[in-house]
Amino acid sequence: MLKVYGTEMCPDCAACKKGYDGNGVAYEYVDIFGSLRNLKEFLHLRDHLPLYDEVKARGAIGIPTVVTEEGEVSLDWEKFLDHKGNEKTAEVPAGAACGLDGKGCWALFFILGRNLFVIPTITI
Known about the structure:
alpha+beta, four-stranded mixed β-sheet, two-stranded antiparallel sheet, 4 helices
């Protein structure tokens, strides 16, 4: 079974869930903002794998992230639809993504006291 790291605030994650649900793809969804444990689990991947170097250089988060049972980590959730011969049924609606270009999400994270805040940001 696949494990998907994401958050309900991310339109790309919503498209991933819709695509998997619509095509019967079995997966476990880990909301990275659901608990500190979930966030730390995701950050451990993000902070230690070269796959995320380009993502971090762009200031992006790197979600949705898909991890296979074999331990393969991927940022391309749609390839698991292609591999199974399923259709890509979910698209991020125009304007739904956080970025001005309609692609992906950019966010600023900061900690104040014991609270983690996420602020969607816009690059002009």
